[in-house]
Amino acid sequence: MATKELKTYSLAEMKDKYIGEVGTPSRDDYEYELRMDVLGKMIKAARQERNLTQEELGRLVGVQKAQISKLESSANSATIDTIIKVFKALKAEINFNVKLEDNFVKLA
Description:
mainly alpha, two-stranded antiparallel ribbon, 108 residues
């Protein structure tokens, strides 16, 4: 009895097949959601590092605990202003990169 060799796929190949290729609207949406999820996790980790509760961080920022909870779950509904306020309240530095095609835009 001959055994059939299984074909393996890379993560990139699976994303291309099931989500869409890089540059397509579905892939862009996926990558955006993923980045916002990671940003939320970073906010939570920074808050915990500062030994703050969601309620305490909310007070520092001027929002309700529920908004901090939602932000930590996924930052996709937050404004840039709110995200900056949160990191400022956490005394954490945040950096933004703007990339146009293959070049990063640098501010002088």
